[in-house]
Design brief:
Shape: globular
Largest sheet: 6 strands, mixed
Number of helices: 7
Structural class: alpha+beta
CATH class of the largest domain: Alpha Beta
Strand content: 35-45%
Strand order of the largest sheet: 2-1-6-5-4-3
Order of helices and strands: HHHEEHEEEEHHEEHEEEE
Number of domains: 2
Length: 290
């Protein structure tokens, strides 16, 4: 991790000098864990890498697939991928966010997928990873890739053993789930552009299905502007014990004015601002079956 990112974490979340030093160390540990998983994925395959790092209740959001929840289901899902033995996926963190108590963190960056049996150029996309800290280890709570699909032909997901997550009405994640629901309600009432501009933090970034990065409330609002109708709902979530950072996973339907609905899923990382309101820091999505 570059000194710039360490400084970003320290200044945003840890204003005092001793805390800033601890933040730098914790953020460096989080990034090192992400890089280690990415390296293992590139060397030995995604299945091996995730088997060692995903939390038992972790969630994978793979392009074109349903929401896959639970470490066992993730492994079964990866076995359904075409060309899984020749697929190599790696990623590089470019940014990091850390909760005040370092119990939760998120990284985002570039992901590269290569099929070793095909001469096609690598697919370059993005990723968002949310990790929960357990002792000195960082376990993956939610992981999203976008723009990295290398499937040879249309994948069929029938019979995939997927457990649909459930969100409880209480718990540390509740404020972030409510924010997600209010975000969706505003999009339904006033349009996606107004909703995204309102709910985006000043430093917010969004990653579309092709891996395109859009930064800042105004640019994000412009990217989603138009007559399409956006509807979504969260199906899973989590939060730091300190309550200043959380995440939600959900399913969306985007219906153009003249066209067929687009079915997608998303991972959103939230931050509670010092003055009180909740706003999103990272938002990424990819396609899913109907």
């Amino acid at each position: 991790m570059t000194p710039g990112y360490r400084l970003l974490v320290a200044l945003m979340l840890f204003p005092s000098a001793p805390c800033a030093t601890q933040a730098q160390d914790d953020a460096a540990g989080l990034v090192a864990a992400e890089q280690s998983t990415a390296q293992l994925s590139g060397d030995s395959g995604l299945s091996v890498a995730l088997s060692r790092t995903v939390h038992p209740s972790g969630i994978l959001l793979w392009p074109g697939a349903p929401v896959v929840a639970g470490a066992g289901n993730i492994q079964r899902f990866l076995e359904t991928l075409r060309d899984r033995d020749s697929l190599r996926l790696s990623w590089q963190p470019l940014g990091v966010y850390l909760a005040r108590d370092s119990s939760l963190g998120a990284t985002w960056g570039v992901a590269v997928a290569v099929n070793r049996l095909v001469s096609n150029a690598p697919k370059i996309g993005r990723y968002i990873s949310v990790r929960r800290r357990e002792g000195d280890k960082w376990a993956i709570a939610a992981l999203l890739f976008t723009g990295t699909s290398l499937g040879s032909g249309k994948q069929r997901w029938e019979g995939l053993p997927v457990t649909q997550p459930a969100i409880g009405p209480k718990g540390a994640e509740a404020p972030f789930v409510r924010a997600d629901l209010d975000f969706a309600r505003l999009a339904g009432d006033s349009g996606a552009a107004i909703a995204f501009r309102h709910w985006a933090a000043r430093e917010a970034m969004s990653f579309g299905g092709g891996g395109l990065l859009t930064a800042g409330p105004d640019a994000i609002a412009k990217a989603v502007a138009g007559p399409a109708v956006w509807k979504w709902y969260p199906v899973a979530g989590g939060a730091a014990r300190s309550g200043d950072m959380g995440w939600t996973v959900g399913q969306a339907v985007i219906t153009p004015k003249d066209g067929e609905p687009n079915y997608s899923k998303y991972l959103t990382v939230w931050r509670r601002l010092p003055e009180g309101p909740v706003r999103f820091l990272l938002d990424g999505g990819n396609s899913r079956p109907q």
